[in-house]
Amino acid sequence: MQSLFNCVVYQHDPILLVWAVLSLVIGSVVTMRLFTRAQDTNKQIQTLWLILAGMIGGGTIWSTHFVSMLAYKSDIILGYELTLTVSSLIIVICTTMLGFAIAIRKANTLRIVTGGAILGVGISLMHYTGMAAMKIQGGMQWDVASVIVSFVLGTVTGGLSVSITARRLTKYFSALGAALFVAAVALMHFTGMNGLTLVPAQLDAEAVKLISNATLGAGIVVLMGCLYLTTFITSLIDMKNADETSAHYKYLALHDQLTGIPNRYGCEKHLKDLISAPLQDGTGIAVVGIDLDRFKRINDVYGHFAGDHLLKTISFHISNILGEGELIGRFGGDEFLALKTGIRGKDDANEFAERILTAIRQPVLWNDADISTRASIGYSLFPWDSLDPIKLMENADLAMYHAKSNGKDSVVGYGIAMNRANKERTTLGMLLASAIENNELSVHYQLQNDAQTRKITGVEALARWHSSAKGHVAPDVFIPIAEETGFINELGAWVLREACSQAAQWTVPVKVAVNVSAKQLADPGFPDQVKQVLEDTGLAPSRLELEVTETGIISVASLALNVIRKLKELGVQIAMDDYGTGYSTLATLHNFPFDKIKIDREFIKDIDTNAHSSAILKSTMILGNSLKIPVLAEGVETEEHLNVLNKEGCQLVQGFLFGKPMANAVLVDLLAAQIEAGLWEEQIPRKDNKNMAIRLVS
Ligand code: C2E
Ligand code: CA
Ligand code: CA
Prior knowledge:
The protein is of the alpha/beta class and 698 residues long. Strands 13-14-16-17-18-19-20-21 form an eight-stranded mixed barrel. It has a five-stranded mixed β-sheet with strand order 7-8-6-11-12, with helices on both faces. One calcium ion is lined by residues 577-578, 598, 600, 634.
């Protein structure tokens, strides 16, 4: 140890030694950085980084050795032989490169250890080749033990430096790896040199051209200068590439692939940025929610490519009408979000939203077909409606759903008037719109019985909605919402088909009554729809009864009469529902060809105590008798109710006394039990009515 210390301190020139140490430390840090960069990059440019790491690493080892040799105080050193000097450089660059190339896989320990050892061996090979290049006036005597120790130290420490860097074993792997690299080169070099004794002797100078100390020093500076310059330029290019790549990814993250406009995150980020910037001159921001009407239908009818084309074209049309401070983004699906700064109030926001609506309405062609659509638009205003970006978007959405329920193709601004109840209704309306596809709807059946014999005459189909988000929702709540949003037509059509197809499977020919809303009745295509359902399900028309309300008929009087006539031509029966709650009742009954009158349950609940209710019942019975239309009383809950009704001659009843509305499976079991009990008699199926398998025992 003492002799090693003496060797370093007394046998070397301190200034050149500082140069050697500095270039070693800097070189080691750069080398290890290049190596980890090579590990982290993709295969294509990995080789480039490995070559650079090998050149800087090898160059560092080599230059450290020769600068140390320049520092070595000896009068008998003549110079360095060119071929061996250059060979030592090539050897160490190759071994370093090879070592790194083998050790590059982070998870493969064997490869890392092997690679590290090769790098370590490379240091020793370089050292002794370099020593062989040195020509002196005399001879060299090597202490074998020192040579072996230097070799082992170089290999082990070099191997360790690569292992720690390659596997990133500690948080400080880069510093530790570089430090071990420094140690490997220094320990190897000085242990080796410590075992060397130069013996002066008068030799005949060979005629070999030697490199002088000055030339060697200059060569080292030029070589290392070139290597560092190359590394510097490469790193600059790399950083620029990394910036471009990150900018590209940032763009992708914030933009919609299909339309090229900002996506949900882009919109949200933009809105947040706008809100966090100080407000100028008291103006605000309009947050506009846009939902295309009928987009799903276009997708279904014309295919997804047409849908994509529509979305792209609409984005393009809207982008074209945007001015300064205005932005459009796609939130996903057929939902868009637009922003406008510099808003002074509702008028500005309205103008902006209407402008967007006009852009959306523009014709869009797909294979010569016009697939243009409309939109429902809602907006909310910062800072008036809310200061919170998320709230603003929610409020814009809420206003947009209002626009949808108002018959679509319109603009609605968020207002305080949209209170909680409204919000709840809007939410329900939104959920209801997807209740069919989510399988949340079902049909329950309530018995209708003969008031005297109590036998089943028919059932009424009643819609049930079990929302996955809201649980069971009562028909009194969701039917009016469906009527408001226009969903009632779809819902009614679904109930009709479901009820008819289930009724067609029943083993007894019980009639089924289905409720029909005013909107359905106003649709001239409704009779054809009923005809189609009967054909598809195989239900005999005589087994279907449609319940229409008086208010429903009055609101669409002229249309309804026509529709009802067509329905009757099909062989379907029509019942007047909720009788007594309307006003021009008599006139309605005279004008429309009904098959049944259903007195509203309102008048039955206190029939035995309330004179007014009793009067309604009596007058209805007179009317029914004179028109020869049977009367059914709804809401029959007690025996007292039934007694009064029987006394007044009411033929049919429906109510909790006979049963609450029940699921199809429960009804099927009940009918089976009645067959068992002999209440229905077997009947041979007739060709014209395949459902008429069993007939009620009279
Ligand atoms: P509605 O047509 O008058 O139907 C009869 C309602 O009275 C049912 O309420 C039934 O459960 C209830 N009810 C039956 N017996 C009694 C009783 O003894 N006491 C009392 N208090 N109530 C009784 P539900 O099922 O809640 O339906 C409410 C309304 O929703 C229906 O009144 C009908 O107007 C509407 N609705 C139900 N399903 C449909 C449908 O598929 N289409 C249309 N357009 N409307 C439907
Ligand atoms: Ca009804
Ligand atoms: Ca009713």
